[in-house]
Amino acid sequence: MTVGLFIPCYIDQFYPNAAIATLNLLKKLGVDVVYPTKQTCCGQPMANSGFEHLTQGCNNLFIENFAEFDYIVSPSGSCVLHLKDHLNAKSSDNEAQAKSIRKKIYELTEFLTDVLKVDKLTASFPHKVGMHQSCHGQRGLMLAQMTELVAPAYSKPMHLLNMVQGLEIITLNRPDECCGFGGTFCVAEEAVSAKMGKDRVADHVHNGAEYITAADMSCLMHMEGILRRQKSNVKVIHIAEILNAQEF
Amino acid sequence: MSKGTKDHAQLSDVFNADEARVNWHDETLWFVRAKRDKAAHNLPEWEMLRETASQIKDNVLSNLHDYLLQFESMAQENGIKVHWASNGEEHNQIVHSILKDSGVDRIVKSKSMLTEECHLNDYLQHNGIEVIDTDLGERIVQLANEPPSHIVLPCIHKKKEEIGDLFHEHLGTPEGMADPVFLTAAAREHLREKFITRKAAITGVNFAVAETGEFVVCTNEGNADMGAHLADVHIACMGIEKLVPQRKHLSVFLRLLARSATGQPITTYSSHFKRPRKGQTMHIILVDNGRTTQLGRPDFRNSLKCIRCGACMNTCPVYRRSGGHSYHTAIAGPIGSILAPNLDMKEYADLPFASTLCGSCTNVCPVKINIHEQLYKWRQVIVKEGYADPKKAMAMKAMEFTLSKPAVYKTAGKAGRWVLKHIPFAVNNKLNLWYNHREMPAVPKQSFGEWYKENVKHD
After folding, report:
1. Best CATH choice for the domain A128-243 from the list 3.30.379, 2.40.160, 1.10.3470, 3.40.50
2. 107-166 in A: which are within 8 Å (CB) of B?
């Protein structure tokens, strides 16, 4: 089994540590991982702004880079959801490839849970952690049960975090409210976006989090921007970094 | 209501100037969402009810023509006069002509989002007819000369002190009196006189039953009943999508409606109107106003399933922090944002973008409208139809150019990080909207791509 590692553009540029942790974690679990070096972006920033018709270049490039792998894994629920829902080929020649990619692409925690069926980890992270349920991962990829639905509880990221030694998960007042990032929403609707971010951060801070984690770096980038503006000691950390941590 | 020169983002900016008020608004509506959750979780069959309701409405939308004719003929058989209006203007004219024929120039009206959508109050007042809204929340916003900010809770944006001031000014309650029990009693007395003296009453319609020709009006205050039962003329205004095939289907919708709206098991009054009482005339106006256009849009037709419960507003993190008026349309929030562009794509081009696409609206919707997916799809339509900001279109083209070419991306990435690292002034200024409330990400020494090249051995 060979896994193609998809590192979304903003993680590549601003959060290389999340990407390195993802790579190392997968390797530690015995996965043969390859990072195709000509990758860029899933096209979501354009598509969510109403410019899906401009994403063909990104789509073609993605198919070129990733069609050959058995699985594609990415540390970003939002980008994975976008590709699952909207990756299309330009011609019928590679539509089969696009369709196959839409099926074999996984967000990291769902890959660990559903494909590798990980039941123990040698990780240690002795801190109080708030788990941010990113909307696209949670409601789109169904990584965790949603509070709106009347259905049994589960959470793939939480299941993995529970395997980490010393880690204490804090309880939030609103377990799955959006952080307000929303791609270009964060500048197009700046007032509401920032207020949503402040409120989300406050829930974690008031409940005693030392770290806020998520399966989506974009939400964390947003909340980090707010935390740093507030000169808070609370930090954000991608879930891959916790699952790969050796802090004692 | 028109947005004038301000769009949702700008109106939200104004709303957010008073953060304490935003907190209060958010908490108030979150409380309603929490009540809805509790009510839903008390019914193990909740998800099955939603699915059933969704399928019944699918059936209605696919056979609307037949159900409408069946409803018309049954209603006529029951002695109800049925009128058809293709748009808001026709609807308003029909109401006006019924009132003129009845010699009535003062009426009471219970809650009807359709009449808000058609701007009936303005039309009637312009034609010399006085309209008193009898739903308490609607009466409050009417006194304040404002439109409702929420379809179920029209004055949810007002604090009790503000309502006390309004009542002091208009109903003569003591200055500074803000006790809800006192104010409600004052409103009751004020409205009682209207109910007794007005000869015509307008109500909305929550559900119309094709099989029997009857319609159901749901209220918590009994004001629709008070109006209709005391008036010689009852005019019920309904959108053509309000039909259900059979009376038994109400057993699904009445269980979902109030639980979704406020967390109550059922509305206090779910009143069935089937035939006029002796001496009364009863009219139903069936209104299209863009609904058949929406029915013809495959991606958006199931927005017509909406039963106007408001659950999507209460759960929406954007609505809670921007207020109903920021949507500058009769029906605010996520559902309004997928309905309004159908009526006027240019005027409401901003609304599908007033969302993070978090998907909570879709999950609470009792008839399973895929609201957030429709928001995404409206964005594509609005851009294609040319209603996007030209500056945004330029930026998107530049982004596409960079992101579809690995070599350009790598260079731009370096430049982007270089800018962030070396000239924070260039990006950390007032023109950068991110920076108003948020720090920029710290700049790493190298990208992951660069690290990988240096650190991972290749076979």
Report:
1. 3.40.50
2. 135-136, 139-140, 146-151
